[in-house]
Design a protein that fits this description.
Layout: H1 2-21, H2 26-37, H3 43-66
Helix pairs in contact: 1-2, 2-3
């Protein structure tokens, strides 16, 4: 049940990000792919978890150095 809620939350935040930016970026396409990979038990969860963690880390470093995400 919890993973289903995260799946929905990921899709909603992605839709809001696309709506606010007004365009689809390569990171949006990769995020959609990782949401799909997450549906694969164990291995997919690990792969997408590593991706989302790395994405957040990259976004934080980018914000600290340039002021933009």
């Amino acid at each position: 049940m919890l993973s289903c809620n995260y799946f929905i939350l990921n899709k909603l935040t992605l839709a809001v990000d696309v709506a606010l930016s007004g365009k689809v970026k390569a990171s949006h396409v990769l995020t959609v792919a990782m949401i799909g990979v997450n549906a694969i038990p164990v291995v997919g969860n690990t792969i997408s978890g590593i991706y989302f963690g790395a994405d957040l880390l990259t976004m934080g470093i980018s914000y600290l150095t340039t002021g933009e995400t």
